[in-house]
């Protein structure tokens, strides 16, 4: 079955897909009434495959939408996402729309649950981090009949619209800058990547660019948990104890990179002469460090602004021509830890 993206799915769509009455479908989805297990399983399976989400708005509002925009992000503790939210809010505060935030903790199952609950209140639009989602999430997003903007990443195909950067390109550009500065013995420190898809893509782009010049990463370390200064200190110390000949350390984010910088400063290591460092995100919180960490700006507020603009413009004029695939280009800040050529 194909769905008109301008029309949300209804009970009738599930009824037609299963061959049972709308009343029976309603009973199953509300978990009310006497329905056979076979019929219940059939209806629930069809609803999930179609991406149908029940409407929690009752009575006269049942066919309406509320002036809310669902914003689904993986973390509030990560410094990146509050800045994205700031960009979203600066656009929506000039409209009747209000953002409402859900957090997934990088867990696909939790993302499904958060998205399901948000869509059940019939928001006017959804902004959701990343391009990698479960089949159930993609079905719900496709069937919602509202503007959907996937943010942070453009290395992939969106359900509707996307705003972000190419993380593979970001990794490649940083690798080129490191090699051009004369560094050859490189270590990588970052998050565990099965669920952090954007960090994984940067790592892939980084290693691809190194390999093109005949260079391999000589040591690597991964961790799970918050992007903490203490973790960066610990990982940096352990890596250099294992691999003392490294002359550059590339971190998947600025917070662990800053921890590494503080460790090396404590040890009186010459940075960037003896060893260079770089992170990712351009976190302003670190501007007060004794030395500025080399990094790459991830365009966070601009991503939030442009995503909110797409939602607002499409709701204001559904027929308007709007750019739906927006790739921003981050720039390298060499700071004090990456030699310039």
UniProtKB/TrEMBL annotation:
The keyword Transcription applies. SMART domains: HTH_LACI. One of its GO terms (molecular function) is DNA-binding transcription factor activity. Residues 9-63 form the HTH lacI-type domain. It comes from the Bacteria. Transmembrane segments: none annotated. Keywords: DNA-binding, Transcription, Transcription regulation. The keyword Lyase does not apply. CDD domains: HTH_LacI (cd01392), PBP1_GntR (cd01575). This is LacI family DNA-binding transcriptional regulator. It comes from Tritonibacter aquimaris.
